[in-house]
Amino acid sequence: MARRLRWLVVVAGIAVLALSFFPVSAQEGEKKVSIDEVPEKVKEAVLTEVGDGKLVDIGVFKQGEDTVYEIEMVVDNKEFDVLFDSEGTVLRKTFEGVKRTKKEKDAAAEKALEFQDSFDLENRELSSTGRNRFFILEPGYQLVLEGKEGEHTVKLEITVLDETKKIGKVETRVVEERESVDGELIEISRNFFAICKETKSVFYFGEEVDIYKDGKVIAHEGAWLAGEKNARAGMMMPGEPLIGARYYQEVAPDVAMDRAQIVSMNTILDTPAGTFSGCLMCQEENPLDKEKEFKIHAPGIGLIQDEDLLLVKHGFVKK
Question: Is residue 318 pLDDT above 90, yes or no?
Fold first, then answer.
């Protein structure tokens, strides 16, 4: 559902999501020691606990008035932390996970960077009406965004119509987008959505596109439907969005492959329609043309920024 008109490309203040993994900090006053530096009872208990596994390290620190010893070990390819008192009694044993090779860690990191493109829609109960925190799919709801792109004034009207369309076995809701530049209509798209009753995730089943020039339709670039020409439904908005989530919004090979990554869940934005906090920011990109853009969605409202366009009006319109 990406806008196709590109009058001006502005790259400023690009947000970058960095996923960082921080090691657990050591206990206050903890000192690393060797196996030969601990009391004999503790040494025997440690060696018994480790058995044929691998002792990674030992730390000693004070817990109140008592001296305790904590080891990290790998047994049967599993990582454990074990806490002993000064008599060698096990106070706590914690499973930390399966020890992975560098190859396995690299594969997991690569997997985390992949975009989800399959959503098990056959086993979901879908509806043509509903809403989640950042997307309203109810007839009559409308968002109006406006802004300047270069010297041109652009207006985008997004309206949930009192109209449905059957795509395969799914009844979808029609959402119309009307885009104009300097008051002249340049595009109308009819987008087809359905919402999962259980998770509230919103799925995108395709769009019909009419591109205008001088009041006449001249093209249908970007049109696609799930089930045709290997196209499949994508996810427009997760019901439970998480920072770092990556998903395809459109899965129409060689036609429309927009995908999104959630980069913030606490954005604040001033718009002509008001100031909104707790907003979701996502970076959208199209691997077919390498184009990237940011969009911001407000809770209880929906889309409030699309590139240079900002929300000027929202709510239900009269029939």
Answer: no
